[in-house]
Amino acid sequence: MKTIRKIAALLCLFQFVAIVGITQQKANTLKGTVRDGATKETLAAVSVVIKNTTEGTYTDDKGHFSLSTNQKLPITLEISSIGFESQTLVITDAKPSIEVNLVTLTGLGQEVVISATRTPARILESPVSVERLGIKELRNAPSANYYDNVKNLKGVDVVTSGMLFSTPTTRGFAGSGNARLNQLVDGMDNQAPGLNFAVGSTVGLTELDVDYMELLPGASSVLYGSGGMNGTLLINSKNPFKYQGFSSQYKLGVNHLNSPTPNQGAKPYYDIAMRYAKAFNNKFAFKVTAQYIKAQDWHVSDTRNYNRASSTIDDRTRSYPAYDGIGVYGDETNFNMNSITEGLLSAIPSGTPTWQGIKTMDSLFRLSNNKVISRTGYDEIGVVDYNTYNLRGNVGLFYKINSATELSWQTYLGTGTTAYTASDRYSLRDYKIWQHKLEIKNPNWFLRAYTTQENAGDAFNATAMMRILNESQKPSFNISNLPGSWAMQYGGAYTQAFLQARAAGATNAQAETAAHAAARAFADQGRLEPGSARYQQIFDSLANVPISKGGAQFLDRTNLYMTEGQYKIHQIDFMDVMVGASWKRYVLNSEGTLFADTAGRINIDEYGAYIQLQKSLFKDVLKLNAAGRYDKNENFKGRFTPRISAVVKIAKDNNLRFSYQQAYRFPTTQNQWINLPAGSAILIGGLPQLREFYKFNSNPVYSLANVQQYGAAFTQAYTAALQGGASQQVAFGTAANTASATLKPHQFGEYKAESMHSFEVGYKGLLLDKKLLIDAFAYWSTYQNFLGRQTVIQSKSQLAGALGQTGLIQQNPDRTTVGDRTVYSVSVNAKEDVKVNGWGFSADYMVGNGLSFGGNVAYNNMRENNLPTGFISYWNTPKYRYVLSAGHDKILKDWSVNINYRWQQSMYYESDFVVGNLPAFGALDAQISRRLPKIKSLIKLGASNLLNKYYQNGVGNPSIGGLYYISFGYNVF
């Protein structure tokens, strides 16, 4: 209720400001047309401003402008547009029409960026590393999706969970959902507040509405808040006062050519987008945008066997009795047949009819090399909804209170179906995210309030879904109904087939192989087959049952509320001063399917403030910047974050930059409050309330390394006792007593915010008559209280906990308990510092007449560390990656072509889902396009991964092949 009152108060304030804005009668109206001096084409979105004032306008989609003013003649107009040389024009009398011809800018590095200091500055003079993609770069890029173009920027790594779900990062620690890189769309946090992944690739701006993208690699939280550890990506839309008229784009493509998934052929790709914007008297404007994409998603074709106990991948096939395929679900349920038979022999009296058969079964499995058996799983293609689509749009109303102050209301919507990789694979079906923003801004200040409303739709956990589906068809083990249990059917059939094979003269190994095949076929009788009516009926029912009630569905309805403002102080003459403040509230609402919120919604409040000081010295030879930020989350101590930087001009358009900055991030909403049975463990947040809920104090937990140590000691003592002639019972007791001294309960330290401090040195400059742009940097960073996950084990008895790890006790279908052992993955801080370093280099050369070449290379390295066994850091970054590019804007009169080739080195990839080596890969993207000036249109033929060499950029993620498309765009310039 308090949040609603705050937003209502802001609405009243903005409305009052709008009402008191005074519209004055203008004495002179200047009209004209702006053209490209070389081609004579009219130019849209050209800025026309009266010098030394804030009065101005933009040319419309036909190149025309109209500017009314009460300034007396003569008036000096400043006319500018990115990619052209600025012009000044003195108007001495009210001409009926002004004609302006702009000259194409031939030099590089003239862009103005905002992200580095939150104030406009030439990119050459930025105090920290920054990358920029403007309209021209996005228009000429080969990628079918504008968001994917960030992968060609220097030092950027991308992890792809699905065709419409990509996650970028810089300087390490990548994953499907990167909480260390901020993504802001029109100033709004783009991270889903509950699911904790940025949704810029599916929720945000449509392609036709993107004005520019700016990326700050590395530490950036001093100005952008929690999360800016590894960078901040800003995506900003087109203002309707500047970009007017109707635009549309139609894109048709094809993918899945020569798919590695069996029996899959080429599939169509559709992408339709439109935008309409209109301004009235340069006072009121509106815009409407929409984009719809439909395709078949990339498939997970990696079905290699994953040994979860040792976290290793091998090439064992489905005939392997304990097979657990990476892209196969339901086979995670496994058990040791000797453990089952031992338990039955001890529970069933020897006089019962089944006793002798179980004893025979136990004896035969002791001869087997494959005592661990897994359930038969289902390939992802029959589980996850690959019919991906995305519908997104934006409606905005804009009002100019005066020539410098603008009031706006915007609503953004994104909905769709895609796939996501986290602790398991998730099918996100018909998710919806709304964002609403009210903002008033001025060149010297702004105030905004917005909310993010999240709805997970019909999302479900694919791994959990198929484990439960297997159990619903036939329980793995049920002592009250042994004949109906899958495990007992498997064991009985195995025993019979083994004895028959041996009687026929087969060796033990041959008999074992034949028996496992026969046993699985027998136990799988009645198995639910994808496509059957019964399968679909049970599948649909489980997809609509929440996880908290034994199903697989998420019910996440988490919301975010945010207000922030910024102000430049002009009363201080000797330096530039800027201050800002923010407040945000998360309202967690998953009904127990994601968070520990079964008792009701959970609120988390954060607030912060920052100040930035800038000073130029020695006639702009030296520019100093100092900034500091303080933030407080209600669950954590406050954080102060400083940044100090200097830019030194060593020659005209050649600058050195130096910076020291700190960054921080409060644990995400999931880091704090998640409570989710998933994969091989129960994921829980790091707050002490959750450890208290699971009684860690009264029933201690043990680290994975400690249990492995105990298991090794137990096995050694147990074997020695048996060899010494002891009975099994005596050997068990002796081994437990001997190994118990090695067990030490895991101690959790204080749960803290993560912090990082980083040094960076860089150079950016123009050479060879401004035709060659060089950018280079090196950085050294140290993370403290590094946030990751720690695997711990809890058991009613120390013995069961150890045996569970050594594979001697049955694993239950939910895979989070083994015997009476429970495995948890807890969000924790590393006690040790984590150190990384790296460098990057790029060169862009403009040959002339539209021909250009470019390339960049980046190196990232996580230095030696002492992270404990079972601690997942998510480094997931190749040491070396590079991108080469070539382009020609005027290969013929109205033709252009662009080619990009990117490559990255092999690396070790780790996540909660799967860990393993990721091979090196390279991909070639290309496009050729033709402008049709007379009808203001553009035809483009393009391809992502032109050579169709399928690759993965994350182990367990889909294989990405070629996407080939042709598009027709109207008024897209």
How would you describe this protein?
Keywords: Cell outer membrane, Membrane, Receptor, Signal, TonB box, Transmembrane, Transmembrane beta strand, Transport. Residues 124-232 form the TonB-dependent receptor plug domain. Residues 397-946 form the TonB-dependent receptor-like beta-barrel domain. InterPro entries: Beta-barrel_TonB, Beta-barrel_TonB_sf, CarboxyPept-like_regulatory, Plug_dom, Plug_dom_sf, TonB-dep_rcpt-like. With 973 residues, the chain is an alpha+beta fold. 17% of the residues lie in helices and 42% in strands. It contains 14 helices and 54 strands. The radius of gyration is 31 Å and the shape is elongated. Mean pLDDT is 88; it is low at 10-25 and 798-819.
Measured between the Cα atoms of the first and last residue, the distance is 46 Å
Please state roughly what percent of the residues sit in beta strands, choosing from under 5%, 5-15%, 15-25%, 25-35%, 35-45% or over 45%: 35-45%
Which word captures the global form?
elongated
The whole-angstrom Rg is 31 Å
Total number of beta strands: 54
Helix content: 10-25%
What are the key terms here?
single chain; 973 residues; alpha+beta; Immunoglobulin-like; 22-stranded antiparallel β-barrel; 7-stranded mixed β-sheet; 17% helix; elongated
